[in-house]
């Protein structure tokens, strides 16, 4: 697997966000003040020596289980209204059929946390950004809701907040008229934890999602990637995503 | 020797009547904006898969036409065609007005239109969208300076020519940028094509000239000023060249795609079984916006009619909307191939062709942008000496 390297743009982006720490908190809804992604607290915790990623084993993923989706929804305070076309979907379950063999595969899909994220390239204000540890986020205070990142995302991984939001979590700010996607539960990672979907999948006994540091050769995820075949989605685009799939 | 006299149009009852109707459309657009702002984009037809809808079709049409509308002025001062000079002021005013109308739609459709200052002050220079914001505002400034230079007696003609050259180069950059918004989207099979940039330039030539002809003719009728048949025929022949260029780039784009199996699915969707998109492509863009105007403008049986260039212009505008609808909406509706060799059976919002039904607020916002353009042209010609009193063939030679 390609070993990720740091880019100068990451540093300048971090500096920019640090300088913007004064605006890291803002009132998103009456009486609710939230810490924005990219704010000083969240950003300072990013470790440039790490590259966080997921390895998803499609063989272990149960078509009838959506524990990862429920856990993400509960953890981050988003919920659907029953219309998949307009609902927020930070993570979704997909079942596919091989067109020549008929074999069915089930797996979760979320932001692939690309090393070269097209959403970050196209964002006019720089609201879409990548932390030095590879996590791709949206700064909810500078997103103008133009949706160009959604046009550019090769994975349909981003959602536009189509409706007023209620019951927000202080660690996962959301805002009507802005774009959002999987944060890899950055608030948990910065405290040494793991994403909610990973823990939920483990609790069901499936253990289909492995989380870890792709830069650490001794991590479980790196060892598995070295040992077994895996794929990145849309390899034609050479984006080096942080999310990998095996047994697809 | 300049024989052209420019005068403000008179505020007759017809002019006021038209203005009231246009203001009505602008108010309806503002009401739509506040409605969507309050309830969210859920009240529009746009979704997480069709993220740019009907407002963007209107906005892109107006923005593309804006740079094309400046061509008449460019032909006059950059390419030294004296017969075009009396219309150069009008050309610059219309270019600015079209751009303002288009930008208004884009801004009011933002999820957070209140953050426009962030867009104006915080740039990510790797984004073609950010570059476009600079190109658009720069165009307004340069076209404004160009208009001033043409109208001011103290600005020497040599300076006006230089400003005109700058405006011409800038407008080419602007349309390149607009086309590249789509051309640089590498992930989607409907875009990801360098030909988008020159194709958008050809589109701008055609749409801009068509809008120019329609608006100029309307202004002359409103103010009872003559406009020469030969002049219209001449501009009509130019329009035919631009329409042919659009057809050429369209053919080159689709033939290239057809040659590679990778794009076969998207081409089949556009050309054969894409439903509304296939209909709009063949009936809207190719027939109404391409072949019919060419026939009307070039066949001798139609060519002698003084109305021919206007009918052709109206068809080019209709076909242009159809073309941009197919590019913007059709390009999003066709799914990306995230999993080659697999068919998505269930995948909440990821499978199949994305559906889109435009809503009334979207339509009203789009029409409001057109109304802003027409109002700006009206106010400009009412308050400034822009429209010549006599555009008859005898007068402009």
Question: What report would you give on this structure?
Answer:
- The complex is a heterodimer of chains A (248) and B (397).
- Chain A has helices spanning 8-19, 40-44, 67-76, 118-122, 148-152, 186-189, 196-203, 220-227, and strands at residues 25-29, 32-35, 52-57, 91-98, 104-110, 128-130, 136-138, 159-160, 179-180, 209-213, 243-246.
- Chain A is of the alpha+beta class.
- Chain A has a single domain (8-246), classed as 2-Layer Sandwich (Alpha-Beta Plaits), CATH 3.30.70.20.
- In chain A, helix 3 (67-76) packs antiparallel against helix 7 (196-203).
- The radius of gyration of chain A is 17 Å and the shape is globular.
- The model of chain A is unreliable at 1-35 (pLDDT under 50).
- The longest helix of chain B is centred in the middle third of the chain and has 31 residues, at 229-259.
- Chain B has a domain at 13-191 and 203-237 and 349-396: Formate dehydrogenase/DMSO reductase fold (Up-down Bundle), CATH 1.20.1630.
- Chain B is built from 15 helices and one strand.
- At the A-B interface, strand 4, strand 5, helix 4, helix 5 and strand 8 of A face helix 5, helix 6 and strand 1 of B.
- Strand 4 (91-98) of chain A pairs antiparallel with strand 1 (342-346) of chain B, so a sheet runs across the interface.
